[in-house]
Write a structure and sequence with these properties.
762 residues, alpha+beta, 8-stranded mixed sheet, 5-stranded antiparallel sheet, globular, disordered C terminus
Length: 762
């Protein structure tokens, strides 16, 4: 009988109830768990848990029962926020003229709630009668209404479009914090993460995501900040269990600046200073109202706050496009968009990445901290009051900065103040892990080819961060260490003996034309001479190629972890989701992928801008890990402001760049060993080949639709490649002759053939 009971128990376990895939991910993230931690607990592979969360596969017994138990416990700790009332109507269906009365969700006066930036504002008498809120992210949901605080049963009588220039078909950009369409809303932030404040016909309006428009009663900037925190219900839930919710963001248009007494544009002196003068009348207004500014002052990304009391944080972020808050290199023409469309664009970025906290670089760095907060909240057993824990959050960088190793310090760092003034550090003194900038002359055989074809690695530096083990604490100095490829650090080792003419590819030794390959150990591709400092991925690659390594010195970090995994995952998902919006899906065939990539920028311009901003967030965030002095009256040997951050970590930046460069070199070697084709130029994440053919499929070794294992694979996922551009061989030889530069890096200009000093790589 016991066997029958066991069989029944197994049958029940095989159908253990599980929440939807998106909810599984939310629950894990809410508790601050990584996919690796869940996989380890359930004794399955990381990819298995990832597939469960994406809905690609479903767990089977015995793991299913344990997984259901985990999710059930997390659901008790982090119950899903109640979904707002919603109403959806099929496309091309007239909106009903009668609405069900429901309680108003906010004290803010809602002028309109619409599904798209083209908002229909309904004329109505003062009424508490309003439509149910539309399901965010559903372009068919249409239910605008007027709300005030007085009771009435009057119905709306008419509607007029106030934004006829906006594309009706554009979907709303409201997304849940995990990047999915928002089906549940945190009641504290039910009006979205941000609002674009504008003035129309003398009235101040706040354009939110999903087509919502709020009436703003504030007459001054201090009262606008008060209204935002008390009534607007703007903000974004925290991204991790120990973290905190994002502050609301207000984007001020030119009309709003004029209304609140701020300059429409900065003077030359103010642009250089990055702020308006401290004596400005608006700053005096804020001071009188007990509001404070951060040390950066009142600039394009001003932060206005009052000191937090316990867990009660009072802070509002401002974004001022006309002060160049939205850099055109990354945000395109976003600053010129109408308020509703700008709210849609920034709202999409906020939902899929996070609410912007400054430039894309600043936001990239802030995202790391939001996913791994330095400390966590505990309740004092004696007083019952919440306070910050004394120890740092596991897996984070902590709240205090740590010194880098001397070899990791950039020139001018305080650790180097005793060096002679004009001393130039060589490879034996300085870690120099940078992206590729390498080129060589074409061989006679390559000159007879028809075209130069460039391949570009998608989100290359994000892919380099994925799964990378980095240091979480201070370095330890070790003499004559035994190299450990799993230990992050900087190693002094002689790699000049690695001969690219004979290397291991997989488990087999292969013969190559080593002179036609860049060295994997230097950014310029030159073969190293003597000992030099390298990050762990670079030294590990020398071993992978079949050569022994014997470091003489190292700075290693015994406290380490995969700090960037969550950061990579969120940015990858944001990128893939937005590319899918533009018609470039991850499951396209190689030819369909190339076709879709040729057309995607001609699609939804706002979503194309989001793609640009996501990519800039990756590169900028990594760059901020080794931020240099920015004016500030700095002198060589003195500390600069960025050094006070725990996220000033040049070793992490170096490790990511090292791994990214090695990833590309590995593909180049695999391709050369299989096809006999060698690159003629490499710039960062772009590699150029001289071939007979104008498209990647003319020379990439696909067999029955499958790429060379370990080589270049076409696709939208990070680490896969796309077509960067094609020019003729005659073009390449012509510009090299024109500029009298036989090794001019053709990868820099392959995209459109225009020779400038601008880096066209991603």
């Amino acid at each position: 009988m016991s066997e029958l009971f066991d069989a029944v128990d197994a049958l029940v376990a095989s159908r253990a109830t599980l929440p939807p895939p998106g909810e599984r991910k939310r629950l894990r993230a809410a508790h601050g768990l990584t996919i690796d931690e869940v996989a380890t607990a359930l004794k399955v592979r990381r990819a298995t848990v990832s597939a469960w969360e994406s809905g690609k596969t479903e767990p089977r017994p015995p793991e299913r029962d344990a997984y259901a138990r985990l999710l059930a416990q997390l659901a008790e700790l982090y119950p899903a926020p109640a979904a707002p009332a919603s109403a959806s109507y099929p496309p091309d269906t007239a909106v009903p003229t009668t609405f069900t009365t429901v309680p108003a969700p906010t004290e803010a006066r809602i002028l309109s709630r619409g599904p798209t930036p083209e908002v229909a504002i309904l004329t109505a008498t003062e009424s508490t009668q309003r439509s149910p809120a539309p399901a965010l992210g559903n372009p068919a949901a249409t239910a605008p209404a007027a709300v005030t605080g007085q009771a009435s049963t009057s119905r709306p009588t008419s509607s007029t479009s106030r934004h006829p220039g906006v594309n009706k078909a554009a979907p709303a950009a409201a997304q849940a914090p995990d990047g999915t369409s928002a089906g549940k809303t945190d009641p504290r932030f039910e009006n979205g993460p941000l609002a674009v404040v504008d003035v129309e016909d003398g009235k101040v309006l706040a354009y939110c995501v999903g087509g919502l428009i709020l009436d703003v009663p504030a007459k001054s900037l201090p009262s606008l900040v008060d209204w935002t925190l008390k009534e607007a219900k703007l903000g974004q839930p925290k991204l991790s269990g120990p973290g905190r919710a994002a502050d609301p963001l207000l984007v001020l248009t030119q009309a709003a600046l004029e209304r609140y007494g701020l300059p429409v544009a900065l003077t030359k002196e103010e642009r250089l200073a990055g702020r308006i003068p401290e004596g400005h009348k608006v700053i005096k207004q804020l001071t009188r109202a007990d509001w404070q500014l951060t040390k950066r002052g009142f600039g394009p990304w001003a932060r206005i706050y009052r000191p937090a009391k316990g867990s009660d944080r009072q802070c509002v972020q401002l974004c001022i496009p006309t002060w160049n808050a939205l850099d055109t290199r990354h945000w395109g023409t976003a600053a010129q968009l109408p308020p509703a469309r700008l709210a849609r664009l920034l709202g999409t970025y906020a939902a899929r990445v996070m609410t912007p906290r400054g430039s894309t670089a600043v936001t990239g760095l802030e995202l790391m901290t939001a996913l791994h907060p330095p400390t966590y909240t505990v309740r004092d057993e004696a007083t019952g009051v919440l306070r910050q824990a004394d120890e740092k959050t596991p897996g984070s960088l902590g709240k205090d900065p740590v010194d880098c190793a001397p070899c990791e310090a950039p020139d001018g760092h305080p650790l180097l103040k005793d060096l002679p003034r004009f001393h130039v550090r060589g490879p034996g003194e300085k870690l120099f892990e940078e992206a590729y900038d390498w080129a060589r002359p074409l061989t006679d055989a390559e000159c007879l080819r028809s075209h130069l074809v460039g391949l570009d690695v998608n989100m290359a530096f994000a892919a380099g961060a994925n799964g990378l083990v980095v240091g979480l604490g201070a370095p330890s100095h070790v003499k004559n260490p035994v190299f450990d490829p799993k230990l992050p650090g900087s190693w002094l080792v002689d790699l000049s003996g690695v001969d690219l003419s004979r290397v291991k590819v997989g488990k087999e030794w292969v013969e190559l034309e080593g002179t036609l390959l860049p060295s994997p150990f230097t950014p310029k591709g030159d073969r190293p001479v003597g000992p030099a400092w390298y990050a762990t991925p670079t030294v590990a690659y020398a071993q992978e190629l079949g050569y022994e390594v014997a470091p003489t010195e190292a700075y290693v970090r015994y406290e380490n972890g995969r700090y960037l995994d969550g950061w990579y995952t969120r940015l990858r998902d944001a990128y893939l989701m937005t590319m899918a919006d533009l018609g470039v899906d991850a499951d396209l065939s190689p030819q369909d992928f190339l076709t879709a990539m040729d057309a995607y920028k001609g699609g939804d311009p706002e979503m194309a801008t989001v793609v640009s901003a996501v990519k800039a967030t990756v590169k900028g965030g990594l760059g901020k890990l080794r931020e240099r002095p920015r004016g500030e009256g700095w002198r060589s040997g003195e500390p600069w402001r960025a050094l006070s951050r725990p996220t000033w970590r040049p070793d992490i930046r170096a490790a990511v760049i090292s791994r990214t460069r090695i990833n590309l070199h590995r593909k180049v070697v695999k391709h050369a060993s299989f096809t006999g084709q060698y690159p003629v130029a490499v710039l960062s994440d772009c590699v150029v080949y001289a071939v007979d053919g104008a498209r990647p499929l003319d020379f990439l070794p696909y067999r029955e639709g499958k790429p060379l294992p370990g080589g270049f694979k076409l696709g939208v996922n990070p680490g896969l490649v796309k077509h960067e551009g094609t020019q003729t061989v005659l073009w390449g030889e012509g510009i090299r002759e024109q500029f009298e530069a036989p090794e001019l890096n053709l990868a820099r200009y392959i995209k459109d053939g225009t020779v400038t000093d601008t880096d066209n790589g991603e």
